[in-house]
């Protein structure tokens, strides 16, 4: 899974799709995840980083991860 190459992101959580003109705002954790996705870091590595960095259970992380990825798909920001 990768962010589409034309998608612009910032460390502050701003996301811009120049193809559609749509822009989004992500919270700090989501922004961190987006930057890691953009760097090509694997899903499992990102999830491990989140578990080690933040106080979240594995089951809650999986639920939140699935919700977040579905939002990215709905916004047409991902290449699978």
How is the topology of this model organized?
Blueprint: E1 2-3, E2 8-9, E3 14-17, E4 22-25, H1 28-38, H2 43-53, H3 58-74, E5 78-79
Antiparallel strand pairs: 1-5, 2-3, 3-4
Count of DSSP H/I helices: 3
Low-confidence stretches: none
List the helices and strands in order: EEEEHHHE
C-alpha geometry: globular
pLDDT averaged residue by residue: 93
Total domain modules: 1
Largest beta sheet: strand ordering: 2-3-4
Structural class: alpha+beta
Whole-number radius of gyration? Answer: 12 Å
Distance from N terminus to C terminus (CA atoms, Å) equals 5 Å
Task: Give a quick account of the main beta sheet: strands, pairing sense, barrel closure.
Answer: 3 strands, antiparallel
> What's the number of extended β-strand segments?
5
Would you give an account of this structure?
This protein is α+β, with helices and mostly antiparallel strands. It has one domain. The chain is 49% helix and 18% strand. The chain contains three helices and five strands, in the order E-E-E-E-H-H-H-E. The strands form two sheets. Strands 2-3-4 form a three-stranded antiparallel sheet. A two-stranded antiparallel ribbon has the order 1-5. Strand 3 (14-17) and strand 4 (22-25) form a beta hairpin. The longest helix is centred in the last third of the chain and has 17 residues, at 58-74. The model has no long low-confidence stretch (mean pLDDT 93).
